[in-house]
TrEMBL record:
EC number in record: 1.14.14.1, 1.6.2.4
Residues that bind heme: 415
Protein name: Bifunctional cytochrome P450/NADPH--P450 reductase
Catalytic activity from the UniProt record: an organic molecule + reduced [NADPH--hemoprotein reductase] + O2 = an alcohol + oxidized [NADPH--hemoprotein reductase] + H2O + H(+); 2 oxidized [cytochrome P450] + NADPH = 2 reduced [cytochrome P450] + NADP(+) + H(+); hydrogen sulfide + 3 NADP(+) + 3 H2O = sulfite + 3 NADPH + 4 H(+)
Residues in Flavodoxin-like domain copies: 497-637
GO cellular component, one term: cytosol
Length: 1077
């Protein structure tokens, strides 16, 4: 049924329809794209077809396509052919709907793997396969001709197989195509042929349906085997990563989820099809056009000789390929005339009108006919039907409007691998032209073959080795850009430097991190964040450096809100006082949107009052990106120095430090799977020493460790932050559990899920029992009543079953019994299982019941002002008789850390506590610090920071430190340091010894009372109170002491004193950092 017009609109043109079949036979079933092109020439830039079951609108005019490219109004539509392909493509990137969770998840995980940086990583593998093609053609006899689409298919299939999945199809070593190609071609053909069948006719095609399913089963089996073998084999050698690595290991930052194996299968099939079928067609069309245009071929030869040189034994470099500009123009022009994916499909979110007169109802299927869009004379000129690479000269591209060139689709649903495809095609075309003359021995006339994609049908040619070249050596010398020496760290001046990034592919984020690291070395106080985090709150202190890319002319995902704020909320003068500069990342291959967002941000920031402190820089990924960045970067620090009247100490830049630092590594334990989810990084242990006295007349039976860690370059912290440690369970606990379930700890097992519930346990991959119990689960958590109920189900022995029932019931008696026998005795599941040996709980259920292993957090006990490259933590080792009666209890993380030797590696991350438990902005503000035992940790950092400020000549305020331990000769940790702080006037120390005298226990609250007048005087001067340590008894006792002090000094009621304490807390002048004992 054709579209019903609304008032003020006009009918969409449509060819006459026949009864029952509509326009089904107006378009050639084997080559429907050619038929639709003829209809577009006849009916104009928009027309509608009637076919059984649907009535698509076909659009090809630029002005209408420009509207349809607005992603706020239109989204990708799964057309009938794509719905057929979905039977084997599933919810892979190409055939998923935008709203499906797996599309966004996979898009987020995979997008960085098509960045400029990733392309450099793929280049050697592309070169590997390209050399195989060159070798085959070099060995041909003089009378041998070449099946061009066939060889291009072999090339591109092998390239995506190796780059994507470390799999060699070895197509050049076969007479026939790989069976995957045969299955794929039949499946794509069936997906298209079904469109021409009437519903009844299609139901009768039983044999075709059976073959279709066999082909799908074959592709699924091959890909599933590829996934399975990778899991069994483990990571690639030398830390190499490919697409499959990222699909198996990648975590979506938005959801924290991974891709499941079924979706990975669909993604691999998608890449294998889309990653080779379209690029092989592009190369075939390009070679055809070169044969038919000798003037273009001659110019291409000249460029290849100039850039690559005449010697084919000297392989091209990544930088050289990016200099083949005219070859790139040839490829783009071939894609213009014959885009190998010739259509894409959209639908409107709501009823809408396009072109000011054509009504489109909500969810209407619209086909964008790309070959005719690319022949629109209003954009491409009178020679729109002719092959002319000058359509893609830099000048022509800059003049061309956005949305006129769409060979890769539109917006966020555009082809994710377009940069991969263009790099591969440019490399191969350059190598072919360097080596061969192309011979059109059959005077081939172009015939189009359409499956889902387009390619020349029956295209054959000959080649012979080139004997003459335009030049005898490459004229274009490609040099790797000189990497500036990383400045040595100089004296901190602490000028704020905020580096913001907008990045989907990771390039802009990498540059931002690089700038921030250099900024720290130059003495700036640096921070790095996504642009969205600072929408509406750009700082006026210091400088702001913005590094951002465009994504199809739109903001990257982490810059959307920032751009919306500039568009909708920012106003004149709002950014007065902000000083900024911008560096833009882009690719001139997409000239219409090149640098769109960087330029927009640069202009908007200035328009709303910010001052540009340094010119905007532009990097072009299709050219010498690194060189362009370095050229801009050289002047950045000089501009910052002039702006803030700083001496940037350029000598420190010229004194280049060694490029490599060699470190001999011990046998480092591989990180557990929670490392990535917390952003933990490897940190080397620089020191691990005991703080308690272990000799003399009163040796300590307990242990507190001082642990010093080297921080990775990108990690920074502030005094008061916490350090999260990813630990492993203790060897004894692991072997205890394994023994109970009669498992060999060294045995490998594989777990398979039986339903769709999420799990933190690795499934469908081999893993040692030992590693599973060490890295994935909490073995010592107290057993819960619900867990005990599960144990009842697996206990047949009546006496033991009755006891478990009594512990797990819902009545008050059971609750009291559980509390006394399990909770207070801290009995774990393994404790209970050993107590009730008749329980036959399976190991699989046991694993399901355990919580994922958690990071443990420790207050950092140092200040970055003393040394930003390292930090310390102060760890009380938890060790003693188990309350459960099951031998010795060892705290998981503290004992893990205790075992670490100097040079070992732990995985850790800095966590901002998100509290006000930090030093006041003014170093002159008085402090009152209360911290017994390891509660001293943050105060050691505070005092180190004030000592560093004092060394800089700044005045620091007075402080009182109340520390508690058992005995002066046992556990007075950091005594010498604390005495030195006291000697320098940074603090006045009071130490409470709770075990020094048999008849008298003294605690920190007692020392507070002893010095109550000094405490009161500092409070009157605006002191901030910090309490760190045990939450169960110490912290409440200290709080009551302060309330009593106020009550005594002010002569008020307990209620009034309580109100004062609440006000002090609200004013951030009474701060606590406590934990349960």
């Amino acid at each position: 049924m054709h579209i019903v017009e609304k008032q003020g609109t006009v009918p969409i043109p449509r060819p006459p329809a026949k009864p029952f079949v509509g326009n089904l036979f107006d378009v050639d079933g084997e080559k429907p794209i050619l038929g639709m092109m003829e209809l577009a020439r006849k009916y104009g830039p928009i027309f509608q077809l009637e076919v059984p079951g649907r009535s698509p609108v076909i659009v090809s005019g630029f002005e209408l396509v420009d509207e349809l490219s607005d992603e706020k109004r239109f989204d990708k539509k799964l057309s009938a052919p794509l719905r057929n392909v979905r039977e084997f493509g599933g919810d892979g990137l190409f055939t998923a709907m935008t709203q499906e969770p797996n599309w966004q998840k996979a898009h987020n995980i995979l997008l960085p793997n098509f960045s400029q940086r990733a392309m450099q990583g793929y280049f050697p593998m592309m070169l590997d396969i390209a050399e195989q093609l060159m070798e085959k053609w070099e060995r041909l006899n003089a009378d041998d001709d070449i099946d061009v689409p066939g060889d291009m298919t072999r090339l591109t299939l092998d390239t995506i197989g190796l780059c994507g999945f470390d799999y060699r199809f070895n197509s050049f070593y076969r007479e026939d195509m790989h069976p995957f190609v045969d299955a794929m071609v039949r499946s794509l053909t069936e997906a298209m042929v079904r469109l021409r069948r009437l519903p009844l006719q299609d139901k009768l095609m039983v044999r075709e349906h059976q073959q279709f399913q066999r082909d799908i089963d074959f592709m699924n089996a091959m890909v599933d085997k590829l996934i399975r073998e990778r899991k069994e084999r483990g990571p690639l050698e030398n830390g190499k990563k490919d697409l499959l690595s990222y699909m198996l290991e990648g975590v979506d930052k938005q959801t924290g989820e991974r891709l499941d194996d079924i979706n990975i299968r669909y993604q691999i099939i998608t890449f294998l099809i889309a990653g080779h079928e379209t690029t092989s067609g592009l190369l075939s069309f390009a070679l055809y056009f070169l044969l038919k245009h000798p003037d273009v071929l001659a110019k291409a030869y000249e460029e290849v000789d100039r850039v690559l040189g005449p010697d084919p034994t000297v392989l091209p470099t990544f930088a050289q390929i990016n200099q083949l500009h005219y070859v790139s123009q040839i490829l783009k022009e071939a894609l213009r005339l014959w885009p190998t994916a010739p259509a894409f499909f959209v639908y409107p979110y709501e009823d809408t009108i396009i072109g000011g007169k054509y009504f489109l109802p909500k969810e209407k299927e619209i086909t964008i006919l790309i070959p005719m869009l690319h022949r629109d004379k209003s954009v491409w000129g009178e020679d729109a039907e002719s092959f002319n690479p000058e359509h893609f000269s830099r000048e022509a591209e800059q003049k061309r409007p956005a949305n006129a060139y769409k060979p890769f689709g539109n917006g966020q649903r555009a082809c994710i691998g377009r940069q991969f495809a263009m790099q591969e095609a440019t490399l191969v075309m350059g190598m072919l032209l360097q080596r061969f003359e192309l011979i059109d021995h059959l005077n081939y006339q172009l015939r189009i073959k359409q499956i889902l994609t387009l390619k020349p049908e029956g295209f054959r040619m000959k080649v012979r080795k080139r004997t003459t070249h335009a030049v005898q050596s490459p004229v274009v010398q490609i040099e790797q850009p000189r990497i500036e020496a990383r400045p040595k760290t100089i004296k901190q001046h602490n000028t704020p430097l905020l580096v913001l990034y907008g990045s989907n592919l990771g390039t802009a984020e990498d540059i931002a991190e690089h700038i921030a690291e250099d900024g720290t070395a130059y003495g700036f106080r640096t921070s790095v964040a996504g642009l969205d985090e600072y929408a509406g709150k750009l700082p006026r202190e210091g400088a702001v450096v913005v590094v951002t890319a465009s994504y199809n002319g739109t903001p990257p995902d982490n810059a959307v809100e920032f751009c919306r704020w500039l568009d909708e909320y920012a106003h004149d003068g709002e950014l007065d006082g902000v000083r900024y500069t911008v560096f833009g990342c882009g690719n001139r291959e997409w000239a219409a949107t090149f640098q769109a967002i960087p330029r927009k941000l640069d202009d908007a920031l200035e328009r709303y009052g910010a001052k540009r402190l340094y010119q905007r820089g532009e990097g072009d990924a299709s050219d010498d990106f690194d060189g362009q960045f370095q050229q801009w970067y050289q002047g950045l620090w000089k501009a910052l120095g002039e702006t803030f009247s700083l001496e940037m100490d350029e000598q420190s830049r010229s004194a280049q430090e060694p490029l490599f630092e060699v470190e001999v590594l011990s046998d480092v334990q591989a990180p557990n799977p929670f490392v990535a989810s917390f952003g933990a990084l490897p940190m080397r242990v620089l020191a691990n020493r005991e703080l308690h006295t272990k000799d003399g007349p009163t040796p300590s039976e307990r242990s507190t460790r001082h642990i010093e860690l080297a921080l990775p370059e990108q990690v920074s912290y502030r005094a008061g932050d916490h350090l999260g440690i990813i630990a492993r369970n203790h060897d004894a606990q692991i072997r205890r559990v394994a023994a109970h379930f009669q498992l060999d700890p060294e045995a490998k097992i594989r777990l398979r899920k039986t339903d769709t519930r999420k799990t933190h346990i690795p499934v469908d991959e081999p893993i040692r029992v030992y590693d599973l119990l060490a890295d994935y689960v909490e073995l010592q958590d107290v057993a819960t009543r619900s867990q005990l109920k599960r144990l009842v189900e697996y206990t047949e022995c009546p006496p033991e079953k009755m006891q478990l029932v009594a512990l797990s019931g819902d009545d008050e008696t059971s609750a009291a019994l559980y509390r006394s026998e399990v909770l207070l005795k801290r009995k774990s599941l393994i404790d209970v299982l050993e107590t009730y040996p008749a329980c036959t709980l399976p190991f699989s259920i046991y694993l399901e019941m355990l919580a994922p292993i958690r990071p443990r957090y420790y207050s950092i006990s140092s200040s970055p002002l003393q040394d930003p490259s390292r930090c310390t933590i102060t760890v009380g080792v938890v060790q003693g008789e188990a309350k459960s009666g099951s031998g010795e209890y060892l705290g998981v993380c503290s004992n893990y850390l205790k075992r670490m030797q100097e040079g070992d590696t732990v995985y850790a991350f800095v966590r901002d506590s998100k509290s006000a438990f930090r030093l006041p902005e003014s170093p002159e503000t008085p402090l009152i610090m209360v911290g017994p035992g390891t509660g001293l940790a943050p105060f050691r950092g505070f005092l180190q920071e004030r000592a560093a400020l004092q060394d800089e000549g700044k005045n620091v305020g007075p402080s009182l430190l109340f520390f508690g331990c058992r005995h002066a000769q046992q556990d007075f940790i950091y005594e010498d340091e604390l005495r030195e702080f006291e000697r320098r006037g940074l603090t006045s120390l009071s130490v409470a010894f709770s075990r020094e005298y048999p008849d008298k226990k003294v605690y920190v609250q007692d020392k507070l009372k002893e010095r109550k007048q000094e405490v009161w005087d500092l409070l009157q001067q605006g002191a901030v109170v910090y309490v760190c340590g045990d939450a169960n008894k110490m912290a409440p006792d200290v709080r009551r002491t302060f309330i009593a002090l106020y009550q005594e000094k002010m002569g008020v009621s307990a209620q009034a004193a309580e109100l004062w304490m609440q006000q002090l807390t609200e004013q951030k002048r009474y701060l606590v950092d406590v934990w349960g004992s």
